[in-house]
Design a protein that fits this description.
The protein contains 12 helices and 21 strands. By secondary structure, the chain is an alpha/beta fold. The chain has 3 domains: 6-40; 77-278, Rossmann fold (3-Layer(aba) Sandwich), CATH 3.40.50; 283-453, Ribosomal Protein S5, domain 2 (2-Layer Sandwich), CATH 3.30.230.10. It has a 9-stranded mixed β-sheet with strand order 6-5-7-8-4-9-10-11-12. α4 (130-139) links the parallel β5 and β6 (148-150). The structure holds thymidine-5'-diphosphate and magnesium ion (MG). Thymidine-5'-diphosphate binds next to α3 and α4. Magnesium ion binds at residues 103-104, 127, 174.
């Protein structure tokens, strides 16, 4: 028998070290290392190779697999869009997000919708008492939904409860960080507990067939292990995001074995729960300040859907030796690149200025097509001249200062026309063989052309 030994495990990244340290050498997190029992080892792999007893595994053919996974649509269109058309039976989904963002609300709504449609649903809340979940259900107008509600957090009890009757269609565990098992020698909330309990539940789902949804809190202080460490075990990883102070919530797939990963679902948190947002562009543009310099509207794509969003910039003289560059909702490296291109290729001096860039409404942009809109917002701020309010921008800026073409031109323009925009500043390469009747195009070949549109010259 192997002797139970101690190991020191980082609760943020899962790295194991032989002794305790204040800072994790692997991820750099402070105060995240906790003592746990090392996994009790079996006879070890060498024994197996030398002829220990193993059970031969059975191989199967590829043909037997069903091509299209059967789906359990929830009826919440924004949720179904992100999962790729509904939940897949036997799969495990992790829903991560900051505390208070609305995970429990979203999943109670999903559970109730499925239960009302006749599917057997189990909702296990380890964080809230039954009365609290009931109060929330009342607030959401879903008290009548036949959801089987429990507050169990012990893994063995959960497996015994679920195994007792016929398997439900959906099991929601809120949250995976409250689960614990006597078989794992570590405190609840530690990496060992999280991994052990999650993997037991995932194999339960795989063998018995219900969809398993695990809720995981994202934690910054490393006191409880984050959902990152179980991402590899599950089939789908969804993150629920939003900016504090904004009522918009965005559900984003970061991993999906059964669907796309670039779709987003947009919700609005209201007093009676999360409402689906059918026209996100209209919502993101709802409180636009038309006459203010430093803003430009970007016609972007999120998955298969065009979304219009306002990009705001502020360029102000800096009092610091190294000027500040701050970005919310976009990649800071792309801003640095844009500033460098504006300086080097177009002669726009930004070196002595603080530059702030913000994507309105809490959306996070990852498309390079946003470059042109970000540049327009920056130039509008530098020139102190508002961008025309009826114009959208999209296009990628290359290091040479050329404006590169981007995909889905038609969809972007149609969405802009639908929302009342009449002009679009686009890459010249996009212009050739297209006619969009309601929108006048301003094709640009290089960033210098955009600088000129804002009345700036190379010496400004
Ligand atoms: P919750 O779902 O408990 O968040 P999480 O499970 O991610 O921690 O949501 C909590 C917040 O949502 C809380 O601040 C109150 C707010 N809320 C509403 O605004 N409207 C509602 O109908 C509900 C149920 C919650
Ligand atoms: Mg919760």
């Amino acid at each position: 028998m192997a002797k139970a030994s101690r190991a020191y495990v980082c609760q943020a990244c899962g790295a194991v070290s032989a002794r305790w340290a204040g800072q994790c050498a692997a991820c750099g997190e402070w105060n995240s290392i906790a003592e746990e029992a090392a996994a009790t080892s079996g006879p070890g792999p060498l024994v197996a190779i030398r002829g220990g007893k193993g059970r031969p595994a059975r191989f199967e053919t590829l043909q037997a697999a069903t091509l299209d996974a059967p789906r359990l649509p929830t009826g919440i269109a924004e949720f179904d869009r992100v999962t790729g058309g509904g939940l897949v039976p036997g799969s495990a989904v992790l829903v991560g997000g900051d505390p208070g963002i609305g995970k429990s609300t979203l999943l109670l709504q999903v559970a109730a919708r499925l239960a009302l449609a006749g599917a057997p649903v189990v909702y296990l809340s380890g964080e809230e008492a039954t009365a609290q979940v009931r109060m929330r259900a009342e607030r959401l107008g879903l008290s009548q939904a036949p959801v089987a509600l429990g507050t169990e957090t012990n893994l063995a009890n959960i497996i015994a409860t679920l195994g007792a009757g016929p398997a439900p269609a959906l099991v929601v565990i809120d949250s995976v960080q409250t689960l614990w098992s006597e078989g794992i020698e570590a405190a609840p909330g530690t990496i060992s507990q999280l991994r052990g309990c999650a993997s037991a539940l995932v194999s339960y789902a795989k063998t018995r067939g219900p969809t398993l949804i695990l809720v995981g809190h994202v934690t910054k202080d490393g006191q409880i292990a984050g959902p990152k460490v179980i991402e590899h075990m599950v089939d789908t990883v969804l993150y629920f995001e939003g900016q504090s102070g904004h009522q918009f919530r965005i559900l984003r797939a970061v991993k999906n074995r059964f669907g796309p990963t670039d779709e987003i679902g947009v919700f609005e948190m209201r007093h009676n729960g999360l409402q689906e947002v059918e026209n996100p562009s209209a919502l993101f543009l709802s409180d636009r300040d038309h006459g203010a310099p430093g803003t430009a509207v970007f016609a972007g794509m999120e998955g298969t859907r065009p979304i219009l969003v306002e990009i705001q910039a502020l360029v102000a003289p800096s009092t610091l030796g190294t000027p500040r560059r701050a970005v919310v909702g976009s990649d800071p490296n792309r801003l640095s690149m844009l500033i460098a291109v504006l300086e080097a290729r177009c002669g726009v001096r930004l070196a002595g200025h603080d530059v702030y860039l913000n994507v309105a409404g809490g959306l996070r942009l990852s498309e390079p097509a946003a470059d042109l809109a970000a540049a327009a917002a920056l130039l509008s701020s530098v020139a102190d001249r508002p961008a025309p309010p009826d114009t959208v921008y999209f296009g990628e800026v290359s290091l040479t200062g050329a404006i590169r073409s981007v995909g889905h031109m038609d969809q972007r323009l149609k969405e802009a026309a639908k929302l009342g925009f009449t002009r679009a500043v686009v890459p010249a390469a996009c212009d050739r063989d297209r006619q969009t009747p309601d929108i006048t195009l301003t094709p640009l070949t290089e960033l210098g052309d955009l600088v000129a549109l804002f009345g700036l010259s190379a010496t400004d």
